[in-house]
Amino acid sequence: MEIREARDGDWEQIWPFLRDVVAAGETYCWTRDTTEEAAKAWWMGKTGGRVFVADDGGRVLGTAELHPNQPAAGGHVANAGFMVAPLAAGRGVGRALAGHVLEQAANEGFRAMQFNAVVETNHNAVSLWKSLGFTVLATVPASFRHPVHGFVGLHVMYRSLEAPRPE
Ligand SMILES: CC(C)(COP(=O)(O)OP(=O)(O)OC[C@H]1O[C@@H](n2cnc3c(N)ncnc32)[C@H](O)[C@@H]1OP(=O)(O)O)[C@@H](O)C(=O)NCCC(=O)NCCS
Prior knowledge:
The structure is a single chain. The protein is α+β, with helices and mostly antiparallel strands. It has a single domain, classed as Aminopeptidase. Helix content is about 30%, strand content about 35%. It has four helices and seven strands; from the N terminus they run E-H-H-E-E-E-H-E-H-E-E. Strands 1-2-3-4-5-7-6 form a seven-stranded mixed beta sheet. It is globular. It starts with a strand and ends in a 7-residue tail after the last strand. The protein binds coenzyme A. Coenzyme A binds next to strand 4, helix 3, strand 5 and helix 4.
């Protein structure tokens, strides 16, 4: 499996699983019936953003997008989004995408990465981010309306991308 920059034509493979993840309504604060046009603009068209895919012999199994978390004075902190096809979940695709995105963000000069809204019941994601060095800075209580669990918290998660300074 190769993690590479997205190119023209990848969207046709991204949309079916991105649509399913969004329709489930459990992990992103998106309208569950988001249109393809809006989803494509949101995922592929962020200002200063880059999009990556996990390509397994021509099959796109997952995607990630990397962008500045804030404009201008806040532009040195990155944000990123991740979507793995449900059929390919739990096989290391998310970890591979995240490793690549962290590396690219550091290479681009971002000093940290912040996730603004990780649903606290998204245990797979939370444990993956923690294993990659992210910590939960705060949890905004009852800020996500989960279709199964009701009102749950959203974690703000953070990781520095700077090399530790020698003592
Ligand atoms: C969260 C997500 C990106 C993880 O991607 P993935 O390819 O399924 O995850 P991986 O197989 O790389 O697993 C990475 C880690 O996640 C956790 N994990 C993943 N699947 C798991 C499962 N079925 N049970 C328990 N832990 C699991 C483990 O900590 C695992 O660690 P390991 O590598 O030591 O086993 C993916 O499930 C996804 O796209 N979910 C829907 C959208 C989403 O939640 N995006 C993130 C929003 S913050």
